[in-house]
Amino acid sequence: MSKEKPSIPKGTRDFGPAVVVKRNYIFNTIKRTFEKFGYLPLETPAMEQLSVLTGKYGDEGDQLLFKILNSGDFLSKTKPEDLEQGYKNITRKVAEKGLRYDLTVPFARFVVMNRNEITFPFKRYQIQPVWRADRPQKGRYREFYQCDADVVGTNSLLCEAEIVQMINEVLTALGLTDFTIKINHRGILAGIAEAIGEKGREGDICVVIDKLDKIGAEGVRKELLERGISESAVAKLEPLYTLEGTNEQLLEQLQSILGETAEGQRGLADLREVWQYLSKLNSQALTASNASGIPRLMLDVTLARGLSYYTGCIFEVKVNNVSMGSISGGGRYDNLTGMFGMPGVSGVGFSFGVDRIYDVLEELMLFPDSSQVGTKVLLVQFDKDSEFYALPVLQQLRDAGIAAELYPEPAKLKKQMGYADQKSIPYVILIGSEEMASGKLKLRDMQLGEQQDLTIEEIISLLIK
Amino acid sequence: MSKEKPSIPKGTRDFGPAVVVKRNYIFNTIKRTFEKFGYLPLETPAMEQLSVLTGKYGDEGDQLLFKILNSGDFLSKTKPEDLEQGYKNITRKVAEKGLRYDLTVPFARFVVMNRNEITFPFKRYQIQPVWRADRPQKGRYREFYQCDADVVGTNSLLCEAEIVQMINEVLTALGLTDFTIKINHRGILAGIAEAIGEKGREGDICVVIDKLDKIGAEGVRKELLERGISESAVAKLEPLYTLEGTNEQLLEQLQSILGETAEGQRGLADLREVWQYLSKLNSQALTASNASGIPRLMLDVTLARGLSYYTGCIFEVKVNNVSMGSISGGGRYDNLTGMFGMPGVSGVGFSFGVDRIYDVLEELMLFPDSSQVGTKVLLVQFDKDSEFYALPVLQQLRDAGIAAELYPEPAKLKKQMGYADQKSIPYVILIGSEEMASGKLKLRDMQLGEQQDLTIEEIISLLIK
Hints:
alpha+beta; BirA Bifunctional Protein, domain 2; Rossmann fold; 2 domains; about 20% strand; elongated
């Protein structure tokens, strides 16, 4: 047995009770909304075949996959010359499974494997950890939860409108008010590329525009030129970074910029339809505005999102006045399951970044007291008599559905009170000889520091509310 | 991109919506009880250092650990001659992390790492998957959930009594009535070993007795003899397999069998104290009996439980009249964190087997309808007019907290109804031209096949109950 001080792998975390309880508050808020909109939970295994995972996330992603050694004596199948042929070769022989890297590929895999049993449109949500062998740094972990909802098997833009609603509802329920749901459309980006004379180059343009926040207009210009976008195209593009106005005004301006480009027209038509749905739904996302008076839902033509598989609307959510990246994002894809040979499955999905939401709620002190679900009352014992007296009281409290504990030993009062304090238990019941004689127990409100002598029935009706 | 049909690793499972919802019903029932008794949730990473995991589960367990390849080009550190030195050597170089094998070792690791921040007694529960590279077979998986509750840092037998109560409460809440909570004590087993003239041999005796159900008294006799237990000792042991009577009678009989053996006396005293606690708590586990009239809580001197780290009371739960192994078990250990160099931490814990409980509830058809949390009502659309009419209705339903969906396309009625059917949506709202004219919507009860014309307000008050 190792006696050295144990540790956990870098980039991973233990979540103690106080943190789990707060995280569950976020998860439960999200689940409640997902379910109200007809999304149902799916869970897939942590391990996937490497053949399922590899080649789906680009070369960089492949390198970040955690691979699992085949069990058993894999070396009997490995010869010294394999080693000389390098990493990929031996890896293939010794590892056939990996930890999932995201929830999208397992979802696509599930849809393909169960295509004959699934009724489309298929709305699923999935809240599970994923693993990436990234270099750990502040806010970036090797194990973290993703929280996805996708609907596949329909082109209806009602789904996009509902995603905007779900984002708005979840963040509002969490107490956030000053946030912006940015929306754009890949067709708009393609139309812009065409309109500035760089038809088909929207991929390159998106990758660079995506960095506008980080590297600024000058940095974007430099990188676009490096990627071979012409001077004149860049010059035509730049005014778009600072387009201003209401959503309706933005759509008008885009109409004239995009002219007759087919992709641009598709993008505009889709966005107008999303707005129409939201307006028919009387969506709060349209009517509510954030602290600076800007509507929560804003068209942002500089929103590009890196992932190449998006083909329609794209979303991203930013909490204003907090230094934190986007806390939610997503978009429509035309061909999710094409990677597994099942074409023609269009869908749209999005994801909440729970670690970031957690940090934002902490920073803004938005976790409600009611997210603390611990013990409501601790019974303190002084000796065997008070312990025996306390036992049926304990049972009565629990029978009433009240989370209650009896400190399991007649320890010093200070120690027992310290326990209540550490566990943030709001009430303590003290049972001394006086209390046993009178039948009135001393109930102490730990926050106010006040005590009352009450019967057990009175205590129950006080605590149960 | 691979176009071959994707699959999942053997021994792993996808859980579709219907199954997740039922599993969550079990998890939530368990959590509710754990929290009522003051246990709080802990979550640890899926990956642990191999130095933490190795040597804790015996040689057999070590071989069942899933090991994770170090990221990066580990081969640069591996030379051909390493291969010739065999499996263990190269494994140590290429893998430093593994997937957790249970929740007990990570819990011990957490306690040791956080010993200065934790307030003892520390009550935690943990519901997370674990991974074992076992040969997959019916009912045995390579990824499965464990569901543990432990309290460490106190010797109080109130904890044992509360474990009995929690088991009884969870199973009762799940609708089970005919089950037996078997209890025994390692001291009783040690005392028996001493009393039959094989002092100190209780380890061997436990391992064999544990198989009594499977191999019968004759098989046990054979194996005990093989392990060097004397003929006369086995002969003295055998009457114990069939001890009969009430718990009080069993304790009386044991009193005379165990005589003055110190360990035996310790076991008897502990068990009597557990009974005393339960009796003061008016515990249902004492008063309720199962279908054959036997109390739910039964002393069983043949209960041994294989794990060598138990030192006090041990538990196991069996559902009667169902061919299924134990669905819960646990016990007290004196030295949980000793494996990490922190001695003197006594605790007691137990675990629910969720996969088995799931199968039992399915077999006995005990999943309530209310465990189905899906969409309550589907709005069917026929054309753009009815879709637009439906949108504010949809919003009103959701604003009232009712899980509602609008089928996102004007598909054939049969297809939309099939969707409701497949998703087990209990109500459908049909909005045709007549309904739009009258303002009375057609609400169809899918189970009864009955339709009513109702206003949206009437529908909401009907669905909200």
